[in-house]
Amino acid sequence: MLINKIGKADGEKMNDLELYREQLALCDDKIIDALMERNSIIEKIMAYKEEYGMPILQPAQEEKQERRLKEKLDGNKYQEEIHDVFQRIVRNSKRIQARKLFSYNLVLIGFMGAGKSTVSDYLSTMFAMNIVEMDQVIAEREEMSIPDIFATYGEAYFRESETKLLIEMQSRKNVIVSCGGGAALRKENVVEMKKNGRVILLTASPETVYERVKDSDERPVLNGNKNVEFIADLMEKRREKYEAAADIVVQTDNKTVLQICEELITKLTEMDAE
Ligand code: S3P
């Protein structure tokens, strides 16, 4: 009979290994059961918030959960690994929430500086949703900044790229599409946006917009015209088209990003309930 280093027979050693594997499989079953239970609790929380008209976004609660987890894992040999798993778990809970709330793309439109990028980032963090920042995607594809695209190929070329990208969005689901300020001005673009998205118009006063854009040179439309009068004038020219495109409107002056997003969610869910 073959005897191994620790003096056990090979057959016996194999049996131990089989036993560990069985224990591991049982452990995995427990994890699956716990995750199923966790997800159903997430659904109960959502239903509760909806029933009592409570805010969907509760960043303070999320922070509290994270603190509790860190305390619990403090000094744990597998602290890093377990924390990593929990980040995934929380991310997936957010995805479950996002899919339940929005079965469509969230298309953000509005004037430059209305808050589209800020709101997109926040929603993306809260719901683990992907963002398509149109300007950024177009700039990456062209390997050129937006001002350079305008200067090299002209505005019409840029507007064409916007339309193409919006058509591409038809194959995506449950993403945030942050449009360039001019994207909703073309009727054909709005048709594309609405095919599988809800169009959310963010608004701000010309003074607020001026404050938000004054230190940036990324907007060729405003370069050389960065003053409240020009902004007010262009905004007025665009207003009708923006409003015609919008499914919902959220005014952003003097509000925190959390307040804006909460209002946006409330308005969307009300619209869906109609
Ligand atoms: C534009 C807005 C910009 C960018 C381009 C043209 C516009 O996007 O697409 O400079 O015509 O309003 P932001 O609204 O994200 O600044």
Summarize the structure.
With 274 residues, the protein is α/β, with parallel strands linked by helices. The protein contains eleven helices and five strands; from the N terminus they run αααβαβαααβαβααβα.
Explain how this protein is built.
This protein has 274 residues and is an alpha/beta fold. It contains eleven helices and five strands; from the N terminus they run H-H-H-E-H-E-H-H-H-E-H-E-H-H-E-H. The protein has helices at 10-51, 59-73, 79-101, 116-127, 134-142, 146-153, 155-168, 187-195, 206-213, 228-245, 257-273; strands at residues 105-109, 131-133, 176-178, 197-203, 248-251. It has a five-stranded parallel beta sheet with strand order 2-3-1-4-5, with helices on both faces. Helix 1 (10-51) crosses helix 3 (79-101), helix 6 crosses helix 7 and helix 7 (155-168) runs parallel beside helix 8. Shikimate-3-phosphate binds at residues 112, 116, 135, 146, 180-182, 219-221.
